[in-house]
C-alpha cells in the first residue's frame, strides 16, 4: 500500500474509492485507514450497499447489505486483521472518508476508537449535519470523544472552509483544494437518491407476498432461512406487530449462545419468525445482534434473488419480505449512553433507507431495557438523530406490547 504525505493526497485516495462506488452504482462514498505516524494507507474501501452478483446473469437484485458503508466495513476489516497484521491500536490510526459518517458509521468508528478526518458534509444523514462540530445526535460522553478525535479538513478558496476539529487525526489542520472537496460532495449527491430508492423499494408489498410457512422442506428459500437461523419458520405470531410469549424461547436460546447476552428477531408480515441472531462481538465490537440480523438477512436475500436458477429467484421474490414490512424485536434495547446505540439506530435507518409504512406499534421493538436506562432516554436518542432518521425513516423504538412476552423473557434471563 502507498504512503501519503498530506490531507490532499489522503482525500484524493478516498475520492478514488468513491469513484469505484459510483461505477458500481452504490452510494458514492469511499474511505481508508491511514497510519498517523507513517502516512501509510493500511486499507481502502468503498460502499457496497448495492452490488451486482459476481459472474452472473443480466438482471441483478442489487440491494446487498444495508450496513456495507465504507467506514463500517473498515472497522470490521480492522478487527479481522489487527492481530495477523500486527496493526497499531485504533487511536494511532485515522479513518479518512469522503463524506461525513452517517449515524451507523459514526457509532461504529466511536465504538472502535478511531480518529476520523472528513472531506464533504452530509446535511441530511451525517453525524455533523449542522456543520458546527457540536454533534447533537451523540450522547454527551460520546460527543466529547468525537470532538477530541475527529476533524474536517480545511478547504482552499473558492470554497474557503476552515479546519474544524482536534489535533488527533492524520494531517490535522491541513487544507485540501476545492476540486477534491467538490468531487467528494457532488459524487455522493449524484448517487444518493437512486440508491435510496433501490434499497427502500426492493420487494413486494405484503398484500402481494406469499407466506413462507407454506414452503416445502426442499425449498431453497426455506433451507437458506433455516441455515441462517435454526428458529426460522418455527414460530408464528398471530399479529406480526404484537408478538407474544412464543418469541421468548428463540430470543433467549439465541442470546445464550452469543458472546454478549442479546439477540434480535425479524418477523415477517405473516407473523413468521424469519431470523433470530446474536452478535459476534468477540470478532468485532460492532458486530452486535442487530447488525448481524439485518446484514445476514439482506445478504441471504440478495444471494437467493441472484440464484442461477430462475425458479429460486422467483420464489425468493414471492416469499421474502423487505424488512420495512417486518418487525425487528430486540431481546435488549441498546444502551442509549453508548456509541453502539447510535450505530444501531443508524443501521436500522440504513436498513429502511426511506419511509417505513406507518403502523402502531413501531416495527422497531424491544422486550427489555438494559439496566440504568429508561424508555424516555432511548426515545430521546432516536429523536436527536440527524434529519434523515427523524424525518424520513422516523426511528421510533418501542417496548413490545405483550406482558406475556416480557414476563416469559424475564423468567428466562
Ligand atoms: Zn455510513
From TrEMBL:
Keywords: Metal-binding, Zinc. Residues 9-146 form the CMP/dCMP-type deaminase domain. Signal peptide: none annotated. It holds the Pfam family dCMP_cyt_deam_1. One of its GO terms (molecular function) is zinc ion binding. This is Nucleoside deaminase. It comes from Pseudomonas vancouverensis.
Amino acid at each position: 500500500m502507498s504512503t501519503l504525505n498530506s490531507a490532499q493526497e489522503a482525500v484524493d485516495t478516498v475520492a478514488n474509492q468513491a469513484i469505484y462506488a459510483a461505477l458500481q452504482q452504490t452510494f458514492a462514498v469511499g474511505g481508508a485507514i491511514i497510519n498517523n505516524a507513517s502516512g501509510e494507507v493500511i486499507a481502502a474501501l468503498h460502499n457496497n450497499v448495492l452490488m451486482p452478483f459476481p459472474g452472473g446473469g443480466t438482471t441483478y437484485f442489487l440491494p446487498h447489505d444495508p450496513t456495507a458503508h465504507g467506514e463500517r466495513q473498515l472497522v470490521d476489516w480492522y478487527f479481522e486483521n489487527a492481530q495477523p497484521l500486527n496493526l497499531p491500536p485504533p487511536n494511532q490510526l485515522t479513518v479518512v472518508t469522503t463524506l461525513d459518517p452517517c449515524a451507523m458509521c459514526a457509532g461504529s468508528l466511536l465504538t472502535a476508537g478511531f480518529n476520523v478526518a472528513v472531506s464533504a458534509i452530509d446535511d441530511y444523514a451525517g453525524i455533523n449535519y449542522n456543520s458546527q462540530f457540536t454533534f447533537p445526535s451523540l450522547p454527551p460522553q460520546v460527543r466529547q470523544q468525537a470532538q477530541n478525535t475527529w476533524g474536517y479538513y480545511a478547504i482552499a478558496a473558492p470554497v474557503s472552509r476552515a479546519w474544524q476539529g482536534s489535533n488527533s487525526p492524520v494531517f490535522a489542520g491541513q487544507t485540501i483544494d476545492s476540486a477534491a472537496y467538490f468531487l467528494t460532495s457532488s459524487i455522493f449527491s449524484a448517487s444518493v437518491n437512486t440508491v435510496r430508492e433501490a434499497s427502500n423499494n426492493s420487494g413486494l408489498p405484503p398484500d402481494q407476498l406469499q407466506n413462507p410457512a407454506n414452503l416445502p422442506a426442499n425449498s431453497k428459500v426455506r433451507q437458506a432461512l433455516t441455515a441462517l437461523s435454526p428458529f426460522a419458520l418455527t414460530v408464528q405470531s398471530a399479529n406480526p406487530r404484537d408478538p407474544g410469549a412464543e418469541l421468548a424461547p428463540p430470543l433467549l436460546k439465541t442470546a445464550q449462545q452469543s458472546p454478549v447476552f442479546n439477540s434480535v428477531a425479524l418477523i415477517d408480515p405473516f407473523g413468521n419468525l424469519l431470523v433470530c441472531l446474536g452478535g459476534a462481538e468477540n470478532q468485532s465490537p460492532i458486530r452486535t445482534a442487530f447488525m448481524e440480523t439485518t446484514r445476514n438477512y439482506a445478504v441471504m436475500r440478495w444471494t437467493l434473488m441472484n440464484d442461477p436458477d430462475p425458479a429460486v429467484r422467483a420464489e425468493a421474490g414471492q416469499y421474502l419480505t423487505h424488512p420495512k414490512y417486518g418487525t425487528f424485536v430486540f431481546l435488549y434495547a441498546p444502551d442509549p449512553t453508548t456509541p453502539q446505540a447510535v450505530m444501531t439506530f443508524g443501521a436500522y435507518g440504513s436498513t429502511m433507507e426511506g419511509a417505513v409504512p406507518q403502523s402502531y406499534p413501531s416495527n422497531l421493538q424491544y422486550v427489555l431495557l438494559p439496566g440504568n436506562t429508561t424508555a424516555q432516554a432511548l426515545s430521546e436518542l432516536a429523536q436527536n438523530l440527524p434529519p434523515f432518521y427523524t424525518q424520513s425513516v422516523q426511528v421510533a423504538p418501542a417496548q413490545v406490547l405483550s406482558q406475556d412476552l416480557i414476563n416469559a423473557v424475564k423468567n428466562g434471563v
